[in-house]
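pinned: reference chain
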Amino acid sequence: MSDEINPQEEIEETPEESTEDSIPQDEPSAESTDESSEGALLDDYIEEDKPKQTEYGLIKPRSIYNEMSDSYLDYAMSVIVMRALPDVRDGLKPVQRRILYAMSEIGLTANAKHRKSAKIVGEVLGNYHPHGDMAVYDAMVRMAQWWSLRMPLVNGQGNFGSMDGDFPAAPRYTEARLATPAEALLADIDKNTVDFRENYDGTKMEPSVLPTRLPNLLINGSQGIAVGMATNIPPHNLDEIVEALVLLIDKPDTEIDELLTIVKGPDFPTSGIIYNQKDINEALSTGRGRIIIRGRAEIIEDKRRDSIVVTELPYQVNKATFITHIADLVKAKKIEGISDIRDESDRKDGVRVVIELKQGAHANKILNQLYSLTELQTVVHYNMVALIDGIQPRLLNLSDALEEFIAHRIVVVTRRTEYELGIAKDRAHILEGLKIALDHLDEIIALIRKSEDRDAAKAALVSQFKLSERQANAILDMRLSQLANLERQRVYDEYDAIMKLIADLEDILAKPERVRQIVKDELTDLKKKYHQERLTEVRPEPLGELAATDLIPQENVLISLTVGNYVKRLTTDTYKSQLRGGKGVIGMTTREDDAVKEIVYATTHDDVIFFTDWGRAFRIKAYEIPASSRQAKGIALPNIIRISPQEKVTTVLTVKQSDEGHFYFFATKKGTVKRVPVEAFTNVRKSGIAAINLNKGDQLLWVKQTSGSDEIAQITRDGQVIVYNESEVRQMGRGAAGVRGIKLKGDDEVIEMTVLNSDSRSVVVISERGIGKQVDLKEFRNQHRGGSGVRIAKLNDKTGRLADGAVATAEAKDLIISTITGQVIRIGVSSVKKLSRQASGVILIRLNENDRVSSLTVVGEEAEEGNVETAEAVKTSNDASVPTETEVELEPTASEGSVESEEAEK
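pinned: its structure tokens
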């Protein structure tokens, strides 16, 4: 790197020197000052940059910038090459390689006796790795942990840590030796298969890479942070990697897509479940990516209470930290419903964390919260950076890593074959000399006896029988027992075998396909010896981000709306079924001027649309409405949707996915109707959107969902009803004003618009004074929209005007009747008598003098939770006697539409 620096930097560092050297006696003009100063400074800098001899020796001036750059570059390269990144060939970092080699050098093989870890650490530090002792010990400990490596390379004895993050015991207490798989990494290291280099002080030689038969980089993975780069390679399954290597050896042009059919993804020692084959394939194809992994958890149902049992944790998740995190979340009330956490893990059964739930807690909701808020679900990142030829960092994909390993094994097998060939030729050379000696045995014995000493005998053998010095030495070293006939034959047999071996080794070197076959055979043997079942389950489907609905249990609920714009969410069994004519229970605490307007059935996961009297629509999730008790007033709607204080919500609808292709049918107070496709309200802003263009003085009071072929019934306060097919109203956009649905007289107004379909059986109406009835649909004939309709009930002063109406289907179970004072009663539909259109009805709810009915809601069997009170229970719990059906029926002799007699009323 050049030592030049910026002249301006020199000015800032030595302003006085620069000024004296660069400013001439005659002051230059303003235009030339800067230029001449910089030129003079540059000359001074070049002069200063040259080495100078001083009394302290030769000094070379250096820019701090250049010195820092050079030094940091040296440091960065040292960290990259010698510390943090693994070699693609053996998958080891230098410290790991030195530990394994040092252990093999002191004889700590897989079948040897364990030795103190302190001895191993000292051997590594003293001979190969002059760094911190704890760094070496920690590296060795990790190679012994089954939860860190898919195939541990060190066999530890003693406390080597735990999944709870416990520290290992000090090296003076633990012992270790090589694990069996480590021998596959070191196999043939003594056969000149790899290059050796001097250690840090030049006293020993160490391997630059191991001649591994095990594809360790992919099997055990690697993690490291270097300078300007990092690596993160998850572990994989041995059987899958070997199978992919064999395929690549047989078909070198194999595409990576074919390899991905074999290598399913990472295989972690701690098991777990990984998701989304697309993400897995992308990570393996590019070398970079992210994979979602979950621990394995099971919900155990019990009569008293449920529990969640975690038997597998994601890779590198600290179990103790995981448990502590759950406890903290419970204390912070971010997870509710957990009563106890127990760690029942042991060596025999492995991980087992039992999470006890409170009675009635929703196990699925809590499990989803654990996935969302704790380490039970994590992300594993791929960043497959490794060193090529031990020096060049490169991002690799699966195919690159496999090809580099095959290339390494080809080099190792070739060098091993060359080494074995050299040994065989040396032995053949000796055997040739021995054969000559055995063929001329008497002459050689005589020659040796005549020689004065060994050197003379050796010289005589070399000159007389044309032997080499090595052959002559071998002859002189022969024992007399080798002169026996049997021993002589063994020499001849060994020579023949050696010559065949030489021919075979030379054939291997001459044929690259044989080298590849040997690599393949050794991999196959490795697979048989260390066969692995896959531990990590691969689920090909993607696992989306946990939505809010995943953290909320799906429950059947009732959504109650008041005239005063208060809303609340209740469980469906809040209002228990009673007999007709009961007084009901307090449904909510209301203000004097408020009343329950509507109660709709939904699930907590449903979308809820609010339509206002101003013709606007708002959409939220049902679970966003706060849950309340029966007596609670609820929450003011302006707190959850953006409506003005003067605006009133008149209709609440639930939205389901199955609603696609349906319509919303709008009806106003003055009889206007319109029909809009459901899809028009898919994207509803929080600030609301216009749903209908209202005429002056009119209000939107009803919106119902229709199938496209339903019958529409509009009921007026004065007891008129009109029934027509919805096709009478053409489809319109959100901005349309609509058309006339029913013609009104005087001060009459529409009190209910309801939908009749194939499941509809009757229309239920109720008056302001609680008088109601069912009217069979056969009583009504279809008309065209815009007419005045027909009478549905005979009204008088005792009944009052109509308050509400609804349709009862075959599945209809109960009616929920609400009053303006907050009284609510739930009665069975079957207890409401079917009467003609001309009848007034029967008492459905008894009211106080100033009370009035505000709404009527029909609920089906799906809303029934089994909490239905018996008649006896009702009678016991109410001071006033409950009238029987005969008490409230119309008398046969009474005038049409009359109510019960004075005696019955008293």
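why pinned: The two ends are 111 Å apart (CA to CA). The longest strand covers residues 596-603.
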